[in-house]
Specification:
Bound molecules: uridine-diphosphate-N-acetylglucosamine
Structural class: alpha/beta
Oligomer: single chain
Number of helices: 14
Distance between the termini: 11 Å
Helix content: 25-40%
Shape: elongated
Largest sheet: 4 strands, mixed
Amino acid sequence: MINGGRPLCGQVEIPCSKNAYLPILAGCILCDGKIVLHKCPRFSDIDAMLRVLETLGTVVVKQNDDLYIDCTKIKFSYIPSELTKIIRSSIFTLGALLGRLRRAKIAYPGGCDIGVRPIDLHLKGLRALGIKVEERHGYISCESTKFCAGSVDLDYPSVGATENLMMVAVLSSGVTTIRNPAREPEIVDLQDFLNSMGAKISGAGTNEIVIQGVDKLHSTEYTPMRDRIVAGTLLVACAMTGGEVTLTHCNPEHFLPIVNKLVKSSCKIEANNDNICISSDGCLQSFGELETGPYPAFPTDMQTQMLTMSTICKGSTLVTENVFESRFRVVPELSKMGADIVVQGRTAFVRGVDRLLGATVYAHDLRGGAGLVLAGLCAVGYTTVYDVWHIDRGYEQLDQTLASLGADIHRLD
Ligand code: UD1
């Protein structure tokens, strides 16, 4: 429950990235040894992925914020639908299991709250490397040999497909080239993590990734990158409420497209190597247009937050969602709060209003839920956001973080 209208002021350390941590956890499967991962964020998606690893035979011990992961006893290669239903990202274990055990059977992850989310590119890529893939009764069964290496041209730079293909190639006995891979910073982080265990991967972040297979990976200690989407969400929160917030331990280069839009909306931003400060008087201008796309284009995971902000910007805004088809499910909820948004296909036309009004609203997905919290922070009166478990998947106690910056926000039992 949020009583809107309080400016946000203060400092926040950005946690490690959900989208970097999840594939890195899957990558641990490749190592027949022990791994220490530092600064594990408290997101429920991470807990779910740890359950997947434990199901496969991994022993995970959590001490403070560090994870001690022992992968020496991994012997199972089967992930049932009970788990893929809870965490779609368990599909990332496919490549790692094939690398380690040469076989995997995973329940088809299916669609989710933001779209259909097929995995055809993952499977096409695996087949291109000579891996036997069978789809039957809702399960994907794969078998590989050590000699599965080769060239893959991705039709679309899918983040998950790129990560799966990188992992399957690490322990092969040849050279694998992935053309048109995703170039997100999380891909570079996965490369750095795998290389810290002795993998030979180069080119992540460019148009071609080359993986020279190795026989074995060794133990490592690693701290994954910080979460650019959590950082972006907090920047938008401050832009909308007014105030001054400094975010530490993040790389502002990773969220340049977000910063550019905020500057266009008349926020003041100062950034250096690993922190960023935003100040805003809460009187925002429209940032004009926004179109999501694969990195380095505007990230789809920040679209809803920017759409929410545009509802109180002076002027009109066009927001086009090119990545996930169901990301406008938040619109009817924002409309309850007085937003003026018309959706036509993949584009939302927004006419800024003077103020949003508190209402009872429902989160339908992770980033949509965050958008509703942002709306509540600047709305007049009380907003109650239900189904906040969606938000907990990728934000570490967002309510407490915002309260520490001065927001009047409480989690109800
Ligand atoms: C990852 C992120 C997610 C982010 C997305 C895009 C994680 C855990 N999740 O998801 O937060 O929003 O990248 O930046 O890292 N597609 C296909 N066939 C495939 C694979 C993808 O058609 O085999 C389509 C998807 O339906 C979607 C688009 O490609 O329309 C992008 O998907 P992808 O890049 O694969 O996203 P994820 O890896 O699922």
